[in-house]
Amino acid sequence: MHSESKIDPKIMEEILKFGKNVIDAPKLVSAPDEISLEVTPHDTVQKIDKTRLLHYRPLTEKQHKTPLLISYALINRYHILDIQPEKSWVRNLLLQGFDIYMLDWGSPTSMDKYLDFDDYVNGYLDSAVEHIKNESSTEKISLQGYCTGGTIATAYTTLHPESVKNYIATAPVIDGWRDTTVISNLAKHMDVDKMVETIGNMPPEFMYYCFSVLKPFEQGIEKYIKFFKNIDNKKFVDNFLRVEKWLGDTPPIPGELFKQWIKDIYQDNLLIQNKMYVGGELIDLKKIDMPTFTQIAVGDHLVSPECSMPLHYAIGSEDKTLRMYPTGHVGMIASSLSQKKVLPELGKWLSERS
Amino acid sequence: MQPDSSKNTADYYKHLSLFWTDIMHLMSSKPQALTSTGPMRAFTANSKKVTTELIEINEDLIGFNQYLTEYYKQLADAWGVAQKKVNLKSPEVPQNVEQIEAFKRIWIDMFDNDFTELFDSKKFGENYGKLVSKELELTKHWNNITNVVLQSVNLPSKEEIDEVYKELHSLKKRIGKLELKLKKKETRKNA
């Protein structure tokens, strides 16, 4: 029996082109290891243990009086906020005349397994704020916390409100029980005591697993097909490799800090109930009485909007703004939308209060 | 000791193994004393611990395999359901580039939805939690066996190193807080 083939010759053409792109890829693009993620010039102004306080060099003649300190998340590194000039959160704010500092948490090793929330909030973050206050001769600074860095910054702001003039919470992890993400489901069923007792720090490989179950087929297959299809598109490839390198560079999380984070936020949900303690002091969200700007991404699959939004309603501030953007967790801070909408809105709000 | 009907086979072999380890240790303790400073003396003194750990590793491996099987079963089930949905939505074999693109989009969306639903479910979370917990038990046994080897060459165990880390952390914390207090005082003075 003879059957006539109906396969479009274009399919073969596409397959052959794709194969050629895969072979040509190493000749056309840099290896991720060869790419530097340090984009905007900065100086390291303070080092404590493995943490570094970075001060970005100004890009404008005049600057707003109040400096802004960014408390980045505990997962991956701060580079996503300065991933490339056209999408850099830091560069955009510098161009709007802000004096920017960034706290790099560094890469904890086994000997850092006992670092806890108290060390991060009342140690590293407080030391950074104190350094900035001294260096810029101001009594208060503006503080931005992103993702889990938002949890740390929120705790800091309630304990040291006298040092914070404006607070910006960007996709903060606040209400664990309302979080609808896969990460929250895994966290709720985790025997975190046993994990920390046995392996110490939370290993990066475990974090990779947690992220690999988020949109596994889009992120695990389609993303790479797109990469090889667009291998001639220099801009696309450069952006892809930078984000991939950033995704692959996640430091371990200190065991004690991880334990408290999972238990107090995801399992017992103490922060939003004003029942969480850091360094023996109660975290009362009502003490956040300074101007506060909360930024939420509607399509966030790492920290769901339901998890971040309660902060806006729980704080004591009367001058508070909530903004929601039609994008994802990373899209809110490193995309054309963030450059065109998120950052101009934040800049306007902050400049009126700086 | 005979394995009676009330004792299961695993318990019997556990007892049998520990009995012989103990007897061998007692029988050989005198010659061992001659080489009390060498590594073998320390190692054999702790060999019962290694045996116990190995037996428990086997028990935990059974549990680990159960949860691992369930883990892959859940993934395979989700795959089957998602594939059926794709077949229903797109029954024709794609014939051109556009159709392939459309099919790929449907496939990825269906699979992402179904797998996210699985990963979000209580049954997956519970099983995954137990799987990781068993894996940690295995790591713990491995740590304990390694400790015996470390002690046989007079090196500190994991617990002893942890104690040092804890002490260091506590000291660093106290110094850090004192330094910060001084810094704040200085700032206030300069203001």
Q: Your description of this structure?
A:
The complex is a heterodimer of chains A (354) and B (191). With 354 residues, chain A is of the alpha/beta class. Helix content of chain A is 42%, strand content 14%. In chain A, helix 3 crosses helix 4 and helix 6 packs antiparallel against helix 10 (255-267). Chain B is an all-alpha fold and 191 residues long. Chain B has two domains: 9-155, no CATH class; 158-191. Chain B has six helices and no strands. The mean pLDDT of chain B is 85. Classes of the chains: A alpha/beta (354), B mainly alpha (191). At the A-B interface, helix 1, helix 3, helix 5, helix 6 and helix 8 of A face helix 4, helix 5 and helix 6 of B.
* Biggest protein-protein contact in the assembly: A-B, 46 and 43 residues
Shape of chain B: flat
The strand order across the widest sheet of chain A is 1-2-4-3-5-6-9-10
The secondary-structure element order of chain A is HEEEHEHEHEHHHHHHEEEHHEH
Question: What is the H level of CATH, i.e. the homologous superfamily of chain A?
Answer: Alpha/Beta hydrolase fold, catalytic domain
- Could you give the count of β-strands of chain B? 0
Topology:
The complex is a heterodimer of chains A (354) and B (191).
Chain A: H1 9-28, E1 42-48, E2 51-56, E3 68-71, H2 89-95, E4 100-104, H3 117-136, E5 141-146, H4 148-159, E6 164-170, H5 182-188, H6 192-199, H7 204-212, H8 216-229, H9 234-248, H10 255-267, E7 277-278, E8 281-282, E9 292-297, H11 305-308, H12 310-314, E10 320-325, H13 336-351
Helix pairs in contact in A: 3-4, 6-10
Chain B: H1 9-33, H2 39-45, H3 47-89, H4 97-120, H5 122-152, H6 158-190
